[in-house]
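Report of the visiting student (M.T.), summer placement. My assignment was to run the structure pipeline on a short list of targets and document each run. The first record concerns Crotonase.
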Amino acid sequence: MSFLEIQIKSNFALVTIKRPEALNALNDVVITEIGEMVDSLESNSQVRGFILTGEGKAFVAGADIAKMKEFNVNEGQAFSELGQTVFRKMELSGLISIAAINGFCLGGGMELAMACDIRYASTAAKLGLPEVTLGLLPGFGGSQRLPRLIGVGRATELILSGDMISSEEGFRLGLVNKVCDPAELLNESEKTLSTILSRGPNAIKAAKMAIRQGLETNMERGLEWEKQLFGGRFADKETKEGLSAFLEKRKPNF
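After the run finished, the structure tokens were exported:
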């Protein structure tokens, strides 16, 4: 891949977007490679998650504005559809993802981070959806994911103002899970992902599925979905092992 570096570390991957001369801006090639990365990691039976970060002083500073300036309506819709499709694939994947936000995380970059399961940010990070300052609106799912993450009122203010916020403000709003010293960002991300991946792998996938699907339906349907997933766990040897290990006071062998 020309813009992604993938390092396999035991049961997860560290994925670095490497387009620092453009602050890792997203074009159709970078977005396509992110989708290919998800497919590649899903096909690797040893890998169960990944950490996504950027090279240099940006996570992803947005989409490629120079290219977008030449778009017509159809091209704009196609670019939006590409980003939406790839980010949705990542969001619904059985892989657990952490965005390690090392610097500027703006526009399409923030939309990419929001499609990850968890977001850790450096104290140096700046976040925002500044599309309205360019006469645009978020096109890769930002108008849908941000209200679900932080509430309609706060999301509306951020989207309509286009303002940047600090990682600390992102944490206060619930957009960022944890703020880290820049030197510790990847270590903290790896520590959390390793903890998650030490749990029952099938249970982790089912729990993520319950959360994601529940966000897109009403409470009654969400509870029914949870019941089905919960009951289904009892047909899995993993669950039997987890329950037995607890009763026998030993570490489960997942």
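The longest strand covers residues 4-9. Residues 147 and 153 are 8 Å apart (CA to CA). I thank the supervising group for their guidance throughout the placement.
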